[in-house]
Amino acid sequence: MQYEVKIDPQLWKVYPEIRLGVMQFDTTVKKSDAQFWNHVDKEVLPQVQQAIEGKEWGEIPGIRGSRAAYKAFGRNPGRYRVSSEALIRRVRRGDELYHINSVVDVNNLLSIKSGLSVGSYDLDKLHGAIMLRKAEAGEGYTGIGKDFIDMENMLVLADDKGIFGSSMSDSMRAMVTEITHHVLVVVYCFEDGIDLHALLENGKKTFADFSDIQNAKVWIVEELK
What we know:
Layout (H helix, E strand, L loop, with lengths): L4 E3 L2 H5 L4 E8 L7 H19 L10 H10 L10 H11 L8 H13 L2 E6 L7 E5 L5 E3 L5 E3 L4 E5 L2 E5 L15 E8 L6 H16 L2 E8 L4
Parallel strand pairs: 1-4
Antiparallel strand pairs: 2-9, 2-10, 3-9, 4-7, 5-6, 7-8
Helix pairs in contact: 4-5, 5-6
C-alpha cells in the first residue's frame, strides 16, 4: 500500500516551487559494505567536489532553492542550514561522510549528488497520513544527535502524533535503525528546474544496488496545475 503524503496548499501561496519526491520500500538494514564506500570515495566525491568548485552556496542547484524557501518562510539559511548543505560542506572540507547504515548512507549519497535534502523514515514509527506544513510557535523535536530543535516557521513533515522531519534535521522518533524494515524516503525539492522524476528513478536504483530493497514505489507530490 502506498503511504499517503500531502503538502499543505497554503505553502504554495508563499513559495510555489515546492515538491516532494517520495520512495517507499522494504529492506533489511545493515552496515554499508566496502563496495559502497569505494563507490562513494572513488566516483561520487570527486564528481561532487568538481561540480561545486568555486561556487557560492547560493549558486549550487538544490541548495539554492532550499535557501530561498527558508527565507520565504522566515528562517535564516545561514544560521539554520539545510541538511544537504551541511553534508556538502563536509565534502568541500575533505571530511569523511558519516557511516550510519545501508539506508541512511545511501540517503546521504543522494543528497550530496543532488544538492537536495533527503530524509529516510521508519514507516512503522509513523501514524496516519503525512503532511508537509509550516511549524507553529513552540513546535520542535529532539533531533538525531541533537537536543531539542526549535522548528518554528520551518517546513516540516507531520503525522497524527506531530512533527518528525524537515529539510534541516530529522527527529529521533522516526529515525531508521537496524531494526527498521519499512522505509519512507522523502526528497525535499524547492526548485522547478530539477528533474525530480529522474532523481527518484536514480535513487531507487542506488538503493537497490546497495541496500537490497524490495517492493519499491516512487512518486511525486506536487501542486496540481
